[in-house]
Fold:
Amino acid sequence: MKIFKGEMTKDSVINWVNPIQPYTTIPNQVAEWGKTLYHSKCANCHPFNSGTGPALYGLEQRGPWTDRQNIYAFVRNP
Structure:
């Protein structure tokens, strides 16, 4: 399975470009690293459902975070 970006041409034909292979599983080591990062840097102010900062729940549906690359970039350099 691959995911493509659709670009519409002037004559209303969709040209499917930039195929990527979707992630089907996250390796355990990567998941553990993410969990450790979240608990050490984020969880105090951003718990899963409520807290001082915006909640983690529903993050991808709000603000500039609809693109995961924006989330990754912010976590690396807030």
